[in-house]
Amino acid sequence: MVQVNDNYRKLPQNYLFSEVARRVRSYREANPDADIISLGIGDVTRPLCNSVIEAMSAAVAEMGRAETFRGYAPDRGYDFLIDAIRTNDYLSRGIRVDSDEIFVNDGAKSALGHFCDILGGNNKVGICDPVYPVYIDTNVMDGRGGVLTSDGKWSDIVYIDSPAENGFIPQIPLQVPDIIYICSPNNPTGTALNGSQLKAWVDYAAEHGSLILFDAAYEAFVRTPGVPRSIYEIEGARNVAVEFRSFSKTAGFTGVRCGYTVVPKELKGRDSEGEVSLNALWNRHQSTKFNGTAYIVQRAAEAVYSPQGKKETALTVDYYMRNADTIRKGLEFAGFTVYGGVDAPYIWLKTPCGLSSWEFFDRLLDECRVVGTPGVGFGPSGEGYFRLTAFGDYDNVCRAVERIKEWKI
Amino acid sequence: MVQVNDNYRKLPQNYLFSEVARRVRSYREANPDADIISLGIGDVTRPLCNSVIEAMSAAVAEMGRAETFRGYAPDRGYDFLIDAIRTNDYLSRGIRVDSDEIFVNDGAKSALGHFCDILGGNNKVGICDPVYPVYIDTNVMDGRGGVLTSDGKWSDIVYIDSPAENGFIPQIPLQVPDIIYICSPNNPTGTALNGSQLKAWVDYAAEHGSLILFDAAYEAFVRTPGVPRSIYEIEGARNVAVEFRSFSKTAGFTGVRCGYTVVPKELKGRDSEGEVSLNALWNRHQSTKFNGTAYIVQRAAEAVYSPQGKKETALTVDYYMRNADTIRKGLEFAGFTVYGGVDAPYIWLKTPCGLSSWEFFDRLLDECRVVGTPGVGFGPSGEGYFRLTAFGDYDNVCRAVERIKEWKI
């Protein structure tokens, strides 16, 4: 009989969001008339903007005519999109990124999930706690997790503490990781690192020869002056960091699927014979295991960078940030201790009365008919915290906040 | 410094199609006015059919309205597409496939490239020779290849001979593989296994506890009665086989990106504690490392199964098969020994005059301005063979064939 990857049996049965969905489904079955408002999964709700719709409609029409039909896209993406990314996200901000350092893909999750395939199994992985659970899960699948211990931590992972008293800023760990995941603005805490905080990590990685995997999926939500939107705003970052970007939250592409990864040519890793380029390895990975992003999708992404597209997507981001502000202020008014929601679409709250994250989940669902995400799902340090997202409809957000304000917990 | 996956250094520098593209580019630079006709890379050229265009246009419009906007798709795919696949590709042919056995994805290459992530590193892999090079490359990346020896073979791979004298039918190997890749209709030879030939493999896998990874990307081109389009037409296949399907060639989706994988619940593998379901493992892989296929793309795929969509896509397949017939007959007339082109869009020819595959490539390009694909790129047994594809424009195909007929090689 075929042997399976033995690491999979180490994974807990349920992926966080599947478990949330299961409990909501079960509540809905028991309470079919309940008016449930979801501030749970980080999925967008606003429609695609006009510029994107027009670009996609035109691209669909092109695919229906022999003269303009397009087959396989280039593995790394079409030049028109790579140029738009390079010009708008980097050059215009004074950041150097070369065209052959940009890899267009079907979203940050696939890229983050597979990037470590090109890295060795014995690298020590450092992961902020709490954070997006895909980093841990994919490394466990690849054999870098060790075993899950009774405190909810994986034995081989270096947990990077991000304590509440320091505003959830990740602190330099005692043990040096070879690979460091940083998500800023952070999912779930909403914390965004400022320039000097991020520079400390770039310098640390340079000093220790570590590689930073920088997840910038929420950069569009940064409002505070001086908070970097790209790690390459930091001097020296080209030597130590890969950057993952996505149109999912920036332009509402969760159902369209487009993102990109930047792998600077300076980045090296070591194999048994010497130093090799990570850019070359990732290119090999993508050309072998990926067949390009749909033409229609790439035209949609390009439209996000048109003058009109920029205005329209900014309005949508503003809409969500008004939600974030409403949730944050409403919860503060109700007496909760609240973080995030300023440079991120996530609001992170301390559960009151010593409730565990899942206890709070169940009570919030049962008593307010509001769905959120238990903080413990983002790592053991998330226990006793809870995440609400700003991606809902404004009226629903207001209704949910009113219910929470009136809640006698 | 971060360690890289040491297996990558074992891979030859150039992926087959990149090398073909490089040589064509270099020829074009030296001969800017040359009228080059490509019968090389297996990419479609006919536009998407009307049913698909209409479905996509409607879906794009839906994404632009708040009431009908869709965010993240379900990891496994929308029910509307899963139902259409199940009904049309399986139930209507008397084959049982359950809804939760179908995983919609962004194309067969991603699924084939990553499926072995859920399998152990020590499985012995059996691969037909010649065949689509992604099977070998992905297994080498995962450490199952061993080393590349001077005969062009990987030391740990079981090569499944498919000799010309047996019509390129894969022959049972001496050593038993744990994982067996079968591509039928085959890329590049065009050979399609009939029911009894495929049954021999299903029985062999059942007897030895092997897992078959069945690549059916070209099933739409099967014309010969009795040639299975799905491995599940064979009794017992649910116990031994995963099937990979794609809309790329069936409906011209190479630039749209949609396919699906069928993982029957009967399929088991062994981990250190016992038997586990491959369906559950693949579900875990996809929910962790993939974020669903675009809504618009899934609506496009659904339209392929509408009565009108079926008619329209069948016409396109007919168009390509007329090309295949033209190439096959033309080359036979010119005195070449030719295979395939009957149940597949690929024509496989023996290079004349003892030319190597790459020598033939260079001469065909230089003397006929026709691009094809060197057979040796599909495995060591492909040396001395050459692949032409039927995906071109009919007039160009005729012109290419005329040039080859007049060619004094």
UniProtKB/TrEMBL annotation, chains A, B:
Example of a GO MF term = L,L-diaminopimelate aminotransferase activity
| Positions contributing to substrate binding | 15, 42, 109, 132, 187, 291, 387
A Gene Ontology biological process in which this protein takes part is: lysine biosynthetic process via diaminopimelate, diaminopimelate-aminotransferase pathway
Which domain of life does this protein belong to?
Bacteria
Entry EC number(s): 2.6.1.83
Kindly list the cofactors needed: pyridoxal 5'-phosphate
Which residue numbers delimit the Aminotransferase class I/classII large domain? 35-404
Pfam assignment, any one: Aminotran_1_2
Q: Catalytic activity annotated for this protein?
A: (2S,6S)-2,6-diaminopimelate + 2-oxoglutarate = (S)-2,3,4,5-tetrahydrodipicolinate + L-glutamate + H2O + H(+)
Q: Positions modified as N6-(pyridoxal phosphate)lysine?
A: 249
Q: Which CDD domains match?
A: AAT_like (cd00609)
Family to which the UniProt record says this protein belongs: Belongs to the class-I pyridoxal-phosphate-dependent aminotransferase family. LL-diaminopimelate aminotransferase subfamily.
Record-linked HAMAP family: DapL_aminotrans_1
NCBIfam families listed in its UniProt record: DAPAT_plant
Task of the protein: Involved in the synthesis of meso-diaminopimelate (m-DAP or DL-DAP), required for both lysine and peptidoglycan biosynthesis. Catalyzes the direct conversion of tetrahydrodipicolinate to LL-diaminopimelate.
What is the name attached to this protein's record?
Answer: LL-diaminopimelate aminotransferase
